[in-house]
Design goal:
The protein contains 4 helices and 4 strands. It has a 4-stranded antiparallel sheet with strand order 1-2-3-4. It starts with 16 loop residues before the first helix and ends in a 28-residue tail after the last strand.
Length: about 220
């Protein structure tokens, strides 16, 4: 090895990562030369069981694909009935019709339907939500991917003209993925919603607080 040039400072080589960690106290001195143990190899019976499980999972995926085809087929067959229900609810004819609501034939239909839905908690729909939902005309649901229901779904809420906001439609899209194929666990990755265009002073999500006047009012004579 050649000698360093006169006047040039010689720096020692940087320590190896393991040595640097030891110097900082992150690794015990006795562990410096101990390599991380490798994961033990599965015994033959475990390998065999995993191979059977993989084949079972492939059949499960095939089953899901065939089920999704049936869902798409019968969703299409149900659509005329849903449209007929919508027309009945929007009809302003008949005794007791209330044209100033979302469902004139039966006021508050969708509010009650949501309140009684088993997927909703009792306190999910708050008191201040109720007058807004009185103007709900219809709810439509569709899959993000018609061939794979695990990728999420979209809800479209149709509203009649109302004193609260100017939106005719409010969309909410849930994007998800299959987190664990072995147990069918679905994980929601993203939720997107239409921005509500609230009318002045009608945003029910904002609480109004009366501002107190300092001084306690008029002074006594």
């Amino acid at each position: 090895q050649a000698a360093p040039a006169p006047g040039r400072t010689v720096h020692p080589p940087p320590p190896a990562p393991r040595a640097a960690a030891q110097a900082m106290g992150l690794v015990k001195k006795g562990d410096a030369d101990v390599a991380a143990p490798e994961a033990p190899e599965d015994p033959p019976v475990v390998k065999q069981l995993k191979e059977i499980d993989d084949r079972y999972l492939e059949l499960e995926k095939e089953y899901d694909r065939e089920m999704q085809k049936l869902v798409v087929k019968y969703t299409g067959l149900q659509q005329p009935l849903l449209q007929e229900r919508k027309e009945v609810l929007l009809s302003c004819e008949g005794e007791g019709a209330q044209p100033q609501t979302g469902t004139p034939a039966l006021a508050g239909f969708w509010l009650k339907a949501l309140q009684n839905h088993p997927a909703f908690d009792e306190d999910l729909i708050q008191e201040w939500d109720e007058p807004v939902l009185e103007y709900l005309q219809d709810i439509e649901k569709s899959h993000v991917d018609e061939e794979d229901s695990n990728k999420g779904f979209k809800l479209v809420f149709h509203f009649a003209e109302n004193p609260y906001f100017s939106n005719k439609e409010v969309e909410k899209v849930y994007t998800s993925e299959l987190a664990n194929p072995y147990c069918g666990e679905i994980e929601v990755k993203e939720v997107k919603s239409t921005v509500i265009e609230w009318k002045a002073g009608k945003d029910v999500t904002v609480e109004k607080v009366a501002k107190k006047v300092k001084g306690g009012g008029a002074k006594k004579a």
